Amino acid sequence: MLPIIVNAIISILALTFIRTFVSGQSLRLVTLSILWGAFSFTLALIIHDTLLTTGFSRSSIQLYSAPVLEELLKALPLFFLYRRFHDRPQLALFVGFVIGLGFAVTESTLYILANPAASWATGLVRSISIHFIHGFGTALVSFVWVRTNANLSRFAAISAAILIHAIFNALTVVLHGSFLVFVAANLGIASILLLAFLLQRYAVPSFLNFSAARRARLAELREHENRNAHRYNKVGDLLYMD
């Protein structure tokens, strides 16, 4: 039980770190994103178990089916809700990351329970590797769907997330021991740092974080100030005319 708690704490710390780059997210949005991540893992698990009964091997699922199915399931709601983030690329990145994190924490919990003898190693290594990779993959898809309407770019984003996932899974097959831990941890840390860079790069000016009504009111006040300034200029010209 303790490895599961530690695994969750590390994920919460990562989430807290990423939240420092994003404004406007609510507890409700975070909760729903985590729940979808957990639900998408459950769906993927059911489908994978079904594939096993039809003759697929675990290795083929790990290398081929899992990257495609899991990345599509995680990003599924974002394909329909991306317009809500059209002026908030940061929020799109954040939501994608939280969904991926919810998926990974649920998956890691199952792995820990299935192998108690290696629970500490499993929980710690996964919490700084595949957790961040899952989060980054979904964040990348969400970000690109918000930034562009080009189908080719969107397909490239999904393909990139699937490829990153597949490469990581392949590394877990061909690498072993401390070298696998080293590579996995570095990939995970690189993923969360790259996500932090994108969040910082696409920071939204504070006035865009207001509601639509507040933005309209701000525009109205600025227009009023411009009209007053124009009137004062006209009065000044009349006063100083020769």
Account of the protein in words:
There is one protein chain. With 242 residues, this protein is mostly helical. The chain has helices at 2-19, 27-53, 58-75, 78-81, 89-114, 119-127, 130-147, 151-174, 177-201, 212-239. The protein has two domains: 2-205, no CATH class; 210-242. The protein is built from ten helices and no strands. Helix 3 (58-75) packs antiparallel against helix 8 (151-174) and helix 5 runs antiparallel to helix 7 (130-147). The relative contact order is 0.13.
State the major sheet: none
| Class derived from helix and strand content | mainly alpha
Rg estimate, integer Å: 23 Å
Principal-axes geometry comes out as globular
Percent of residues in beta strands?
under 5%
- Spell the H/E element sequence: HHHHHHHHHH
Helix content: over 70%
Based on DSSP secondary structure assignment, what is the total number of beta strands? 0
Identify low-pLDDT runs: 205-211, 235-241
In total, the number of domains comes to 2
Cα separation of the termini = 88 Å
**Average pLDDT figure:** 87
List the helices and strands and how they pair.
Layout: H1 2-19, H2 27-53, H3 58-75, H4 78-81, H5 89-114, H6 119-127, H7 130-147, H8 151-174, H9 177-201, H10 212-239
Helix pairs in contact: 1-5, 1-6, 2-3, 2-5, 3-8, 5-6, 5-7, 5-9, 7-8, 7-9
Keywords:
mainly alpha; single chain; disordered C terminus; 242 residues; 2 domains
Summarize, please.
Residues 205-211 and 235-241 have low confidence and may be disordered. The chain is built from ten helices and no strands. It has helices at 2-19, 27-53, 58-75, 78-81, 89-114, 119-127, 130-147, 151-174, 177-201, 212-239.
